[in-house]
Design brief:
Strand 3 and strand 4 form a beta hairpin. The protein has helices at about 5-15, 135-140, 200-210, 265; strands spanning about 40-45, 45-50, 60-65, 70-75, 80-85, 90-95, 110-115, 120-125, 130-135, 145-150, 155-160, 165-170, 180-185, 190-195, 210-215, 220-225, 230-235, 245-250, 270-275, 280-285, 295-300, 305-310, 315-320, 325-330, 335-345. It is mainly beta. The strands form six sheets. Strands 1-22-21-20-19 form a five-stranded mixed sheet, with no helix packed on it. Strands 2-25-24-23 form a four-stranded antiparallel sheet. A four-stranded antiparallel sheet has the order 3-4-5-6. It is built from four helices and 25 strands.
Length: about 375
């Protein structure tokens, strides 16, 4: 096993905090877990953007905007950090941790961009508020983010502003009986809810989705959610409400004797997801080992397209809008995180057709609750 204990501890810290557990039973009896058959496999060599810039912190998210790489991590008591995407030079930081105006009280794990890639939003889960600032103001103007608060943000895990409304990921508990997993609202009116989990056991779903990975396509019409431990991938259509499209059971999670998740037996699943309008880029394992050096591509129906092995373990990724370059946070177990890039031009773009396990989507719009749904996290 590679010497990756430093990052593995960081990756699993949130999951271990909620005491991740799992079981061998999945929804509707027992489903078949199987590793996807990738039609194309390649080896990719990255360019190290800077061999002198190391980031000794857990990085929660990253995005590319223009000439900049935006990284979310708590460093120098600030949450958002801007780097030059060509040189790796640190340019500035923003969003102090604190209780003052435009400061963040709680924890930030993801950032979101609007469809025009002009505005950045961060959700403060403790203050239950969404802070938004334009990229231009962040880099060149006065730091005056707008703040949105709503009763719908109560106990929210993540909040994503969409073109016409807002998507909320609710932080649910095992005792919850009538709360949606995701919902959308505009003008304080909820327009769509989604309740189902890929597994039936309430405690399992609560623990397993204590730490998940998600991405929304730039056109804001598609969403994917993947588990960090074990490997289950869900794809959704956001064009009208929240409609399930596909569900892929890839790697089964296992319990140890103490009824905690057996990390070694379960293995890493989706370490990160990044969606473009036509495909999903992922850092993915799914084999039961603790390495995370493979980049994989899926389409938005969950079909595997290609697998690309790399020489580094990778924790976060983002892709240029024209899909010419993929940027990543690579991991050195002794020095920390550093930035690399992978050219994507010339990589295979054939659509894979390997079979995956499907389920029959049910109507889940306009406040319709599934009979088998439950509310955990």
């Amino acid at each position: 096993m590679k010497k990756n204990s430093f990052l593995l501890f960081a990756l699993l810290s949130c999951a271990c905090f909620v005491g991740l557990t799992a079981c061998r039973e999945a929804r509707q009896g027992r489903v078949e877990y199987r590793y996807p058959e990738f039609p194309q496999e390649y080896s990719m060599q990255p360019t190290v953007i800077s061999d002198s810039v190391f980031i000794p912190a857990m990085i929660y998210d990253m995005e590319v905007v223009g000439d900049y790489l935006l990284l979310v991590y708590l460093g120098e008591n600030q949450w958002l950090h801007v780097y030059d995407k060509t040189t790796g030079q640190h340019l500035k930081s923003a969003f102090f941790r604190g209780r003052g105006p435009s400061e963040i009280q709680g924890m930030v794990t993801r950032l979101s961009l609007d469809a025009k890639r002009e505005n950045i939003s961060l959700f403060d889960n403790r203050a239950e508020q969404l802070l938004t600032i334009s990229v231009d103001s962040l880099m060149h103007g006065a730091f005056r983010p707008t703040t949105v608060v709503s009763d719908h943000f109560a106990r929210a895990d993540e909040v994503y502003p969409l073109a016409g409304d807002t998507l909320v990921f609710r932080l649910q508990l095992p005792a919850d009986e009538d709360a949606s997993r995701y919902f959308r609202f505009a003008n304080d009116r909820v327009s769509a809810r989604y309740f189902e989990y890929p597994v039936d056991d309430k405690e399992l779903a609560f623990r397993l989705y204590g730490d998940y990975r998600l991405t929304i396509s730039p056109d804001q019409t598609k969403m994917a959610v993947g588990t960090l431990l074990g490997a289950i991938l869900e794809c959704f259509d956001l064009s009208e409400g929240i409609a399930p499209v596909s569900r892929s059971y890839i790697r089964e999670p296992f319990l140890n004797e103490e009824r905690n998740l057996d990390v070694n037996a379960s293995g890493l699943g989706f370490v990160d997801l990044y969606g473009t309008n036509d495909r999903l880029y992922t850092v993915f394992n799914g084999t039961g080992t603790m390495d995370f050096n493979n980049l994989t591509l899926f389409d938005w129906d969950g079909n595997p397209l290609s697998l690309h092995s790399t020489p580094y373990n990778l924790s976060k990724i983002c892709v240029e809008p024209d899909q010419s370059v993929l940027y990543a946070v690579a991991v050195d177990p002794e020095k920390g995180n550093f930035l690399v890039s992978f050219p994507l031009q010339g990589q295979a773009k054939e659509q894979g057709n390997a079979p995956i396990q499907r389920f029959t989507p049910k109507s889940n719009q306009q406040e319709t609750r599934h009979e088998t749904s439950f509310n955990l996290f």
